[in-house]
Design a protein that fits this description.
Layout: H1 16-21, H2 27-30, H3 33-41, H4 49-66, H5 87-104, H6 108-131, H7 142-148, H8 169-172, E1 185-188, E2 193-202, E3 211-214, E4 224-234, H9 237-240, E5 242-250, E6 253-261, E7 274-280, E8 290-298, E9 303-317
Antiparallel strand pairs: 1-9, 2-9, 3-8, 4-7, 4-9, 5-6, 5-8
Length: 325
C-alpha cells in the first residue's frame, strides 16, 4: 500500500542547501560529525581509489534524492532521518579523517579528542532536548537553535518569545516556496493597552502587582494571539531570578500557567531598561469568567524594577512569496 499518494519528489527544485544547513533539521548543522566524515572520504584515496570514487558518487546521489522530496526537513525528527542509511559508508570517512589527522597534523591528539568529545556531548544534549520537546525539528529557528546549543538547561522562554515557526506544508507539498512567518504582517485587533505599573520587587516584596484581563477579550481564532511587551530593569538577572508569570484562571480552577525565567534570555542587559515581547495563545476552556493574569516574580536576591506592560491582541496574515522558484 502506497501511503504517499499526494506527496512527491521535485527533481528540478531540490532543497540541498536547506537540507544540509537549515536551522530546521539541517543535516550538517545537527550532525557535525558528518562534516569530518565527508572530509575524510577525500583523504582515503591511498587505500582504495575506486572505492573512494564510488563512495563520493553514492553520497552525492543520496543527498540529491533525499532533498528532492517535498518535505526536505523530514518532519519532526532530530537531523535528517534518511541520511542514516549511508552512515555505514560514512563511518569509513570518519576513520579516514582521524587517520589523516594523526598522520599529518601536529599535536592532533591534543585537539582531536576534545573536538570529538564536544561533538558527542552536543549530540547527547540534543537528544535530551528533543525528548523534552524543546528541540522541535519542524519549527526550529536560528534563535531557538543557539539558545539550546551546548546548553544543558532548557530555556523557559522559547515558546513565548516566538522562537519557533510553523511550516507551510500546504505550499511545500506543491513544490512551491513557503509563506513563512517572516513574511507576515501583524494586524492589531486591539488598540495598544498600556499599563503603567512603576514598582520595585525584591526578596521582601517578591510578587509584583498583577495585570488582569477578563475572558470576554480573550476569545481568539487560530491565527490570533496575545502580544505582551514588558519594560523592566534588573541589576543582575542571574541573582534576582526575575520571572514573568502568565496565568489563565476560571474562578479557582487554573487553566494554564507559564513562567519565563528572564535570565534565560540572552539579549537582556543588566543595569539597563529592557523591553521584551512575548506571544501567548490562550488555552481551551476560556469563557466569560476566565481571567488572564500577568505579573513579575523576583525569585532570588537583589531587585527588579518594572515600568510598564503593553498588551494587544494581534492576528497574522500570510503574504505570498515574491517568486515560486
Amino acid at each position: 500500500y502506497y501511503s504517499y499518494a499526494n506527496e512527491a519528489f521535485y527533481w528540478l527544485k531540490p532543497h540541498i542547501f536547506d537540507g544540509l544547513f537549515s536551522y530546521r533539521n539541517g543535516w550538517l548543522l545537527y550532525t557535525p560529525l558528518m562534516i569530518l566524515a565527508i572530509f575524510g572520504l577525500f583523504k582515503i584515496s591511498r587505500i582504495d581509489r575506486e572505492w573512494q570514487v564510488g563512495a563520493i558518487v553514492v553520497l552525492i546521489m543520496h543527498i540529491y534524492i533525499t532533498f528532492s522530496w517535498w518535505c526536505w526537513y523530514y518532519g519532526d525528527s532530530l537531523s535528517i532521518r534518511p541520511m542514516i542509511d549511508i552512515y555505514p559508508l560514512l563511518s569509513f570517512g570518519v576513520a579516514g579523517f582521524i587517520s589523516w589527522a594523526l598522520r599529518y597534523l601536529k599535536w592532533a591528539p591534543l585537539w582531536l579528542i576534545p573536538l570529538l568529545g564536544l561533538i558527542l556531548f552536543n549530540n547527547l544534549n540534543q537528544v535530551k532536548q528533543y525528548n523534552l520537546q524543546a528541540l522541535d525539528g519542524s519549527r526550529m529557528t536560528k534563535s531557538a537553535f543557539w539558545d539550546l546549543f551546548l546548553n544543558p538547561d532548557i530555556p523557559s522562554h522559547l515558546e513565548l518569545a516566538n522562537c519557533y515557526r510553523e511550516v507551510d506544508t500546504d505550499r511545500l507539498r506543491l513544490g512551491l516556496d513557503e509563506r513563512v512567518n517572516y513574511d507576515t504582517s501583524e494586524i492589531t485587533m486591539w488598540i495598544d493597552t498600556i499599563y503603567e505599573v512603576p514598582e520595585v520587587i525584591n526578596s521582601s516584596n517578591p510578587f509584583g502587582k498583577p495585570i488582569e484581563i477578563q475572558g470576554s477579550s480573550l476569545k481568539l481564532t487560530n491565527d490570533q494571539f496575545i502580544e505582551l511587551s514588558a519594560d523592566f530593569l534588573s541589576s543582575d538577572f542571574d541573582i534576582s531570578k526575575a520571572t514573568l508569570v502568565f496565568e489563565f484562571n476560571n474562578n479557582e480552577q487554573q487553566l494554564q500557567y507559564q513562567a519565563v525565567e528572564l535570565e534565560d534570555i540572552r539579549s537582556l542587559r543588566d543595569h539597563e531598561w529592557n523591553t521584551e515581547s512575548f506571544y501567548i495563545r490562550p488555552p481551551k476552556g476560556v469563557s466569560e469568567v476566565t481571567v488572564f493574569k500577568v505579573y513579575f516574580w523576583n525569585r532570588g536576591k537583589g531587585e527588579t524594577r518594572v515600568r510598564s506592560f503593553s498588551i494587544r491582541k494581534i492576528g497574522v496574515e500570510y503574504s505570498e512569496p515574491l517568486h515560486d522558484q
